[in-house]
Structures are given as structure tokens and as C-alpha cells.
């Protein structure tokens, strides 16, 4: 039996977990920025303004690089409160900031030293690489970061397979190591005092340890503990399939309705590929279930899984949970296969709920029979909205008709990006407070 949970005390008191997590990250970054400035001033200034600017941009580039590692470490505390989609977005923009800061660092340093010597900037760069320990490593690190930045641009990402982009992105860790060794060898602020050296070792140690624990140790430990296996594969329609998974001590797996895992099914042809799919039923301590629509090779292969197949799952991830509730009643809006986390949330939610399920045709309503029976059992209202994308059947007027008190409810939203964007626009027009709107932008996480 699924345990129904009240909104946490912090939420009932008006302190949202997402605000706590976001504020914590901002405070951490700001505090470290101040510390870096203090050590920079204590180390003394060079006589050349360009060199001063070069050192400062290098230090803040290093700090942001360490912060970037923290954003992608997948630490449960931050992920549950902020959500992987927002952390990933911050990681993306922080990455571009790192790129520009390190480019500025290189330009200021090279032109600054060239100004003090008789060399032109190109020969000055060559001279620094040949005579100063760690500079060649820094040049290599910067080259890697430039390549990663280029392939991370939206136009390039659209042309690359995810696996190719991810493989290139892994070289960022090589750049991190090279950049840190450059800082150790040539950083005047790093070597200016024992306190500064201890601080930077602590910053980089914490960042790398976070990645090591969140991306490697925790997933390995959980999978060794739970020993997940496929117990059933159930076609829901011609294009949708559900996979049931069991394991040991699943009642100790900290998964919640609305979350997703990165699923890796250990078959000879698919063990290397991980796909994000949401739980389509609230965890009950015995079984996990995912439901996926055929959208590529990964989801198509699910239909052919054999009972007993070993599963390696990373997660649970996501802040699309009841942890963020602010109101006793809720509206759950699903589009297409985005119904999977919505169905799981309905199972866990307490209080009155209105479920709006948007599909093109009745045949596209995946898990509708389950949703209908569950809504009846919980006293929830269920509205199946069918029709083509145009006209917008979830425009403000229609939402108000279906849920007159929508501005006084939490709104959980999951579906294809165009549908989500349209609904978010409708919610803004209806003056639904931002704190009451919950969604995550992972199109494959359904």
C-alpha cells in the first residue's frame, strides 16, 4: 500500500524546499566569491593592469568550474529540492561563463606580459608555455573547454547524437584536472599563503568528491543493495509499453511518485545506453514501474526485454514531487505519455485533485483505465481533453471552466514541450502564483 504524505512542515510554514535549495546554492557561491576576493587582495597586485585582470578572471573561472561540478554531481539533497532540469540549465549557463572567463584570463595574461616585454602576443604565449610550469596544461584545458562549449551550443547539439555529445563532454573532467594542476603550479594567489592553498584544495576536493559520490559511489551502492531485475513487460498499446521491476529492500529506496531514474538494462546490445523514464506508479516498497512510448531505439528495445534481465538504475532524480506542495488541493495536467508521473502523483496525493489529460485522440490516452479507476477511488475529478493542437484546448478560458479555483491549487504539469509552454502561458494569464506551479523540462523523462 502506498503511503500518503502530508506536505512537509517547511512547505506548510511557507518555506518552499526549492527556495531553500536555490538560496543555499547562491549563498555558497557568493560566500566563496568573497573569500576568493579576499585572498586575491592579500596576495598583492601586479604593476600591469592586464595581468591583474587576468589573474582575477582566472580565479573566478576556477571557482565557477568547481561550482559547475557541484551542479552536476546529482547530490540527492539538491536534486530533490531544485530538480535536475534546473540544475542542468544552471550548469549549462555556468559552463559558458567559465568559457568566457578563462578566455579572458588567457587574453589578459598574454597581452599583459607582452606589454611588459618585447614579444608580440603569439610569441609571448609560446614563451610562457615553454618557460612557465603549468601553462601548457592550461592551454590544453582551455582548448578542451572551447571544443565542449562549441558542441554544447544548441545548433551543434541538434546535429549530434546524445552519445557522441556525452562522450565529448566527458573530456571536461580532463580539463578540470589540467586547470587545477596549472593553478597549483602557477597561481600566485594559490601559493601566496597557507590559508589560500588550504582553501583551494578544499574547494576542488569538495567539488570532485561530490561528483565521485553522486555519480559513482551512490549509484553503485544502491544497485548492489537492491539487485534490480525485470519481472514483467506489458504492452499498453501498439506504441507504449510498461516494464515492472523488483529487487531487494525496495522499501528502503528513497523514491517518490513523480521522480525518474536513468535506466540501464544489462543486455548484450543495450547495457551501455541509459534512458530517463519516470515512475508510472507510486513506489510501494515491492515493485517499480516505468511506462514508455516508442520514440527511439532505447524505448523500442523495452518491448523486447526478457523477464529476469538485470537493471542498473541511477536515481531517483527530480523535484516533481509532493515535497513542493503549497496548497491542500491540486490540479494535475498531463499531455500524452507525460501522464506517467501524473498517474504516480495522483496515487500519492492527499486532498482533492482535478486531473486533466490532454491527448489527440481517445486511442492516445495511455493508462486511461488505471487513471479513471484511481481517480474514482480517491474522489478526484478526471477530464479527458481530446483534439488537435489547434485550437488550444487548454487555453485560460477552458482551464477556468474545468477548474474554477485553479489559482488556489498546486498545479503539476507534464507533457510535450509545446503543450507545456502553452499551459504555462495560460497559467500566467490566470495569475496562478509561480510557487504553485510544478514541472520539469525533461522530454524523455516521461
Folded structure, characterized:
The protein has 17 helices and eleven strands. A hairpin with a 4-residue loop joins strand 1 and strand 2. The radius of gyration is 25 Å and the shape is elongated. By secondary structure, the chain is α/β, with parallel strands linked by helices.
What distinguishing features does this structure have?
five-stranded parallel beta sheet; 446 residues; disordered N terminus; 17 helices; 52% helix; alpha/beta
Give a brief description.
The protein is an alpha/beta fold and 446 residues long. The protein is 52% helix and 15% strand. The protein contains 17 helices and eleven strands.
List the SSEs and their pairings.
Elements: H1 9-12, H2 17-43, H3 49-71, H4 76-82, H5 84-116, H6 121-131, H7 135-152, H8 154-157, H9 162-169, H10 171-186, H11 188-191, H12 194-226, E1 229-235, E2 240-246, E3 260-265, E4 275-278, E5 287-293, H13 297-301, E6 311-317, E7 330-335, H14 339-348, E8 353-359, H15 368-378, E9 381-386, H16 396-402, E10 410-414, H17 417-429, E11 437-439
Parallel strand pairs: 7-8, 7-10, 8-9, 10-11
Antiparallel strand pairs: 1-2, 2-5, 3-4, 3-6
Helix pairs in contact: 2-3, 2-4, 3-5, 3-12, 4-5, 5-6, 5-7, 7-10
